[in-house]
Structures are given as C-alpha cells and as structure tokens.
Amino acid sequence: MAHDNATDVRALMGAESAQQRRAHERKLNFWERIYLPEIFKGMVNTLRMIFRPSTTIDYVGAKSKPDQRHIPAVGYRGEHYLKVDDNGNIKCVACFMCSTACPAECIIIEGEQTTIEDFGAQRFKKPLSFEIDMLKCIYCGMCVEACPKDAIAMTTTYNQVGTKRSDFIYDMARLVRNNDEFMGGLGLSRSGRDANGSYPLSPGGCGPDVTHGVTDFRKGVRQDGA
Ligand code: SF4
Ligand code: SF4
Questions:
Q1: What is the rounded CA–CA span in Å between residue 211 and residue 216?
Q2: What is the pTM of this model?
Q3: pLDDT of 22-34, one tens digit each?
Q4: In the CATH scheme, what is the code of domain 80-219?
C-alpha cells in the first residue's frame, strides 16, 4: 500500500520512471566508455596548471605579503591563554567558574592546594591540570567573562592546524605557552606588563593579581593547612 502511494506521488509530480529515464539517457561511445581520453585531458590540464603562478594567498606567516595578511579585529576571540603573575606563577586559582560557565563543557580542571612559600597567603589553590578541548569550544568568551582572577583570556590566534584530535586538547603548558607567545608578540612581559608598568590587557589596566566582582580575600592571613 505504501509503495502504491509512493508511486502515485511520483506520478502526480510528473517524475519519470526508471525505464523512462534510461530511454532518455545518451549512449556513451567507445572512447567515452573507456575514459582514457578524459583522463589524458585531465593530466594535460594538471601539467599546464603546475607551471602557472600559485593563486593561493599566504594569509599568515613569514611569507605572507602585508596586503594579503589577515589582521583579526580588536576583541577577536582566538585561542585561549592562561596568564601568569609577575613572579611567574599561574594566576588561575582553580575556582572552576570558567568551566561552570562554559556552555560547551570543554574545560576540565583539577585543582591542588598551593604552598604559602610559592604563592603567598592569598592564593589557596592552583590548577594541577587545566585542559580545554578546542574542538568542542565555540569561542564564546564566557570563560573569560566568568573568571574572577583575570586568569584566562583569548589570543587573536585563529589558524589552528593539527593531524589528530589530541592536538586540539590544550593542556596547561600549551595555554601558558600561548600566554608567553601572545605577550611577547605584543612587546609585553610574560605577566602582560608594559614599559610604563601597567597591564593593558587586564580589565582597567589593573595589576596581575586582581579579583573582580567579589570581595578581595587577600586582606586576610591564611592559616597553615588552609
Ligand atoms: S570560549 Fe566559550 S566554549 Fe570556549 S572554553 Fe570558553 S566558555 Fe567554553
Ligand atoms: S575562572 Fe579563572 S581562576 Fe577560576 S578556574 Fe577558571 S581560569 Fe582559573
């Protein structure tokens, strides 16, 4: 019954039956059936093109010409980086606010307690591991907005190339390396400080250990084992 209905619909739409279609098909001659002339024509075309100047644009990198280069707009959201402070310590305090805010659920963090010797009394935790799956990321910037410590931000790097999925799982080392390369490219120190001692990439040019939106807990003295 279903088959009859399908036939009816095709008939109503004026569709040809398979037999009618075959009757209208042009018959291939001998040379067309063996394909060799077409393959030969294709090879000749390929050989002609090999010796023509390339039309591919080097839009990035050392070989690119200034007028062909793609310059991302201000505020472009590219790869992430994890910021470090003036002592070289990672600014992230493993609070999980970025991973909680992330709509793609692509940030995985494991935290660990810091030592007072390394991080002072104000920072209780740091990430033991911090991973972003860049294949899941939708570059929305919510993680950056959610961070209370100005610890995560986005570079303008957009050209991501890899040969396997694991190449796109960015771990903490990669994210800090992104920081170093991005800051270096802008002529800033690792912590984002310019020659005048301010931090142009931090909100309001504020210092490297600022807490946004919540009470600054740095005023307290940390107890041993806290
Ligand atoms: S940019 Fe958006 S999707 Fe990507 S890690 Fe940040 S919050 Fe998640
Ligand atoms: S929100 Fe900021 S401080 Fe908190 S875990 Fe994410 S990067 Fe680290």
A1: 6
A2: 0.71
A3: 888 888 899 988 9
A4: 3.30.70.3270
